[in-house]
Amino acid sequence: MKSFERIALIVLDSVGIGALPDAEAFGDKGVHTLGHIAEVRGLSLPNLSALGLSNIEPIPGNPAAKSPRAHYGKMAEVSAGKDTTTGHWELMGVHTQKPFKTYPNGFPKELLDAFSQRIGRGVLGNKPASGTAIIDELGEKHMETGDVIVYTSADSVFQIAAHEDVVPLDELYRICETARELTLDDRFAVVRVIARPFIGRPGQFERTANRRDYSVVPPHETVMDQLAEAKLDSIGIGKISDIYAGRGVTRSVKTTDNMDGVDRLLQVLKEDYRGLAFINLVDFDSKYGHRRDPEGYGRALEDFDRRLPDILETVRERDLLIVTADHGNDPTYKGTDHTREYVPLFVWSPSLSEEGVSLGIRETFSDVGATIADNFGLNAPRHGTSFLPDLKMKQ
């Protein structure tokens, strides 16, 4: 089939669509991010439904489309994890065989002593925590002492929170670079170091959009690397560049929230790029999934659904739009961790048949990367099967 000139890939961070067969092994029996939000507070997603949302899996209040506008399906994660990095790497052809190291009891004293000595500041916290909860708990003490707040989560992350008036951003970023250097040691390995700046006063603290992630690089070549090597565009919007440690990203566009991300994507789609525009919409996960807020999560989904027509109208005749997710985060489930789920898959273009067909259950997220590589004539990634031949073109 004739290839597409451009591909736009949207990751709805944590928008899972039902437990994977191995979910119980991850402590996630019976999870269903979309389904449970719909059951708890109702969901009105007419535009996603028109693409085929409930044709993938019945979502209460959203009837299956008689003639879905998009090709649709769902994808299984096969990597050994359920975090952001694992999911995104798998989308680009990398399977993670060994789970990333986590710190459910906090970081070892040896690491924190070396970290504190290097940065010239003390450390508060050192435990798994919600980012908003820990700044509410320790923000005032941080402002009094100048000690930085260090915390982790169920993911492999070393997070550093500091008030922007106490620790200027440039210093916070240098502190994170120090943590990144120290945690490259196999004894203390973490996948991401994250700067978590905040502002405000006790009782009214608020995290800012000046977050910055410092990730390890993928263990081998991704489809994005191939795009860059072929002199094609590989544009990362939102935290994409951070997730891949900048590798394979020819241009990075920062965002402040989901709706700003949609605005930035629309701007890129109006440009004459050739290759991939890849965006992560993080609010579903960071603001609502981890905080176990189904009401806020539902509103965010409906906000995106209202913007979907703008995206479809901007996609050009020879563009391909892919919408999916990177894991689940069922806000009705116990704890604050991601959940092991299938992710939805929507594939749409003005040049495809107006009646979409089922792409079935894909065996790995890497089918997305394989499709991108197939479209641009690149080497197939180590994992994944292209669904490009399965797309039904207009007659």
Throw out a few tags for this protein.
395 residues; alpha/beta; Alkaline Phosphatase, subunit A; Alpha-Beta Plaits; 2 domains; six-stranded mixed β-sheet; 14 strands; globular
Q: Which series of helices and strands comes N to C?
A: EHHHEHHEHEEHEEEHEHEHEHHEEEH
Radius of gyration: 21 Å
Biggest sheet overview: 8 strands, mixed
Total strands:
14
Structural class by SSE content: alpha/beta
What is the terminal-to-terminal distance? 12 Å
Helical content, roughly?
A: 25-40%
What is the fourth-level CATH superfamily of the largest domain?
Answer: Alkaline Phosphatase, subunit A
Number of structural domains: 2
Main location: cytoplasm
Keywords: Cytoplasm, Isomerase, Manganese, Metal-binding
Binding site for Mn(2+) 1: 13, 326-327
GO molecular function: phosphopentomutase activity
Q: What this model shows, in words?
A:
This protein has 395 residues and is of the alpha/beta class. 32% of the residues lie in helices and 19% in strands. It has 13 helices and 14 strands. It has helices at 33-41, 46-51, 53-56, 84-91, 109-119, 131-145, 169-182, 223-229, 240-243, 258-269, 283-289, 294-314, 366-375, and strands at 6-12, 71-75, 123-128, 148-152, 157-163, 192-199, 206-207, 212-215, 233-237, 251-253, 275-281, 319-324, 343-348, 358-362. Helix 9 (240-243) links the parallel strand 9 and strand 10 (251-253). The longest helix has 21 residues, at 294-314. The radius of gyration is 21 Å and the shape is globular.
